[in-house]
Specification:
Layout: H1 2-34, H2 39-51, H3 53-64, H4 67-70, H5 82-96, H6 110-120, E1 124-125, E2 128-133, H7 136-148, E3 153-158, H8 165-179, E4 183-189, H9 198-206, E5 210-214, E6 234-237, E7 241-245, E8 262-264, E9 267-272, H10 274-290, E10 310-316, H11 324-334, E11 339-343, E12 347-348, H12 351-362, E13 366-372, H13 378-385, H14 388-394, E14 397-401, E15 404-406, E16 410-413, E17 417-421, E18 425-426, H15 427-431, E19 435-441, H16 443-458, E20 460-462, H17 465-469, H18 473-485
Parallel strand pairs: 3-4, 4-5, 8-15, 11-13, 12-18, 13-14
Antiparallel strand pairs: 1-10, 2-9, 3-6, 6-7, 7-9, 10-19, 11-16, 14-20, 16-17, 17-19
Helix pairs in contact: 1-2, 2-3, 5-6, 6-11, 11-12, 13-18
Length: 489
């Protein structure tokens, strides 16, 4: 009798679960459908929900909700800076009237300049000096030297800050400068810097450094903030000197990772008017995390004349009206007439970027992509590899960096323009992360970047179409599965 009772009870529970799961799948599927997502991302979410209804629902609540509709970061729109909009509107007028001598020599790239004006409110600036670093030791030496020179303020914003040797050195300098009366502000990403000790933060605050996390996550498994991270790396000193690029604060960025070894990255030092726009991005982020509106003009000092490097600073994030950096990458690739050199740790493009790369190669443009030979995240690495075969067949040359891990995020086109910053060539950087890049229209700086590319290619293994096509079927299956899930990564 009891056996029959428990059997009937089990069937009832299973029936209720089936009905409940079906309703959940239908409701959440409808919500996803109405959000008008990328169709590949929509299909990926629907597949997860149908295979794992309850787990898929939890996963969607944590990672899948559209932050823009929740208006979690509604105060962060850069176009709320009215004076910035006035500058942008004036420069758009210059381009329309062909009154812009600054980009006359880059007529073929005018569309790119115009795009960043419109989709990122990113004015072009010519009164700049810039230096590109391809080595972490050189970059950190310069960053710390400039921090030591600060006389008014120091602003830092990082995805990762670690409590290790380089992190301790940074903390000591910031505390000393704060004690000297320098205004020091630090933003760290709450997830990227998850392991940063409370004592590290407390010691900074107790010594006068203002420190705030970006989107802190109290209950990580039920909080949709987890998926939207500040991936920017920004340093601004006295409103005159700035840094951005791929380097976070951690010993691994100096090549001390126990498994990955040598760390190859690219970072940029700026002096000049472009620093003011990097400052605006930081101050908007500061207002968001701290609630403090900063309007002091000392943060935007008068800039002396420099050597005329034409630069645009573009920010993007889930608070933007447009996928700014994704669109800039697409336009940059499509503007190529001769060559495209790309360095990225992750290659998970959307269909538009993928088609642009294949079309460029099939058009006879020399397209080279360098990626890590050693993975730091295996499933993402496999997702990247799933795109190799069709790119190779189209004529794209793919290189795997062998000395260690390549973390640089750089696209160089035609020896005329280069984009570098924090954004990877993947859908997370395009749609979920807060990023910042510099678009540089200067042949001398582009030449510096291309020389670093040439060295990296020499230290890399070039993949052949035939060799890659002959990989085992099990590897192909794993890569295909990783690609299917890549819109969710």
């Amino acid at each position: 009798m009891w056996a029959d009772f428990w059997a009937s009870y089990g069937k009832l529970i299973f029936g209720v679960y089936s009905v409940f799961s079906t309703i959940l799948v239908l409701v959440v599927s409808f919500l996803i459908f109405m959000e008008k997502r990328n169709p590949y991302k929509t299909l990926a979410w629907l597949a997860v929900l149908n295979i794992f209804p309850i787990l898929g629902l939890i996963f969607y609540l944590v990672f899948g909700q559209n932050i823009r509709k929740r208006k979690l970061v509604k105060t962060k729109y850069i176009n709320e800076m009215k004076h910035l909009r006035r500058i942008v509107t004036r420069q758009i007028g210059y381009i329309k009237a062909n009154l812009n001598p600054d980009v006359e020599y880059l007529r073929s790239k005018n569309k790119l300049v115009n795009l960043l004006l419109r989709n990122a409110n990113a004015p072009f600036t010519k009164n700049n000096h810039a230096q590109v670093f391809s080595d972490g030791h050189e970059a950190f030496t310069s960053i710390f030297n400039e921090i030591e020179k600060a006389v008014d303020h120091i602003h830092l914003e990082y995805y990762i800050i670690r409590d290790d040797n380089i992190g301790q050195k940074l903390k000591e300098i910031l505390i000393r400068k704060a004690r000297e009366g320098i205004k020091v502000k630090v933003i760290y990403d709450a997830v990227g810097s998850w392991s940063l000790s409370k004592s590290y933060i407390r010691e900074l605050r107790e010594n006068g450094v203002k420190v705030f996390p970006f989107l802190p996550v109290v209950l990580p498994f039920i909080n949709n903030r987890l998926n939207y991270r500040n991936h920017r790396k920004i340093v601004v000193i006295d409103g005159k000197v700035g840094f951005l690029g791929g380097l976070n604060i951690g010993d691994e960025y100096l090549g001390y990772h126990p498994k990955l070894g040598k760390w190859r990255d690219t970072h940029l030092q700026l002096t000049g008017t472009a620093v003011h726009y990097l400052q605006i991005i930081f101050l908007l982020d500061w207002e968001f995390v701290s609630g403090e509106t900063v309007s002091d003009q000392t943060y935007f000092p008068e800039i002396k004349y420099f050597d005329g490097k034409l630069i645009q600073i573009a920010a993007s994030g889930p608070d933007s009206d447009w996928e700014t950096i994704q669109q800039s990458y697409f336009a940059l690739i499509n503007s190529a007439q001769k060559s495209i050199n790309i360095s990225t740790p992750y290659l998970i493009p959307d269909e538009g970027i993928l088609l642009a790369l294949k079309t460029a190669a099939l058009s006879g443009i020399d397209v080279k992509i360098i990626l890590p030979g050693k993975p730091d995240r295996k499933i993402v690495y496999c997702a990247s590899q799933s795109y190799f075969e069709e790119l190779l067949e189209a004529g794209v040359e793919i290189y795997l960096y062998k000395p260690g891990f390549i973390h640089a995020k750089v696209i160089s086109v035609d020896g005329e323009v280069v984009s570098l910053g924090s954004a990877n060539l993947d859908m997370r950087s395009f749609q979920l992360n807060f990023e910042v890049n510099a678009m540089i229209y200067d042949k001398e700086l582009v030449s510096d970047v291309d020389r670093a590319f040439a060295t990296d290619f020499e230290q890399s293994i070039k993949l052949s179409t035939q060799t890659f096509a002959e990989r085992p079927i099990t590897v192909k299956m794993y890569q295909s599965a990783a690609r299917l899930l890549s819109p969710l990564l």
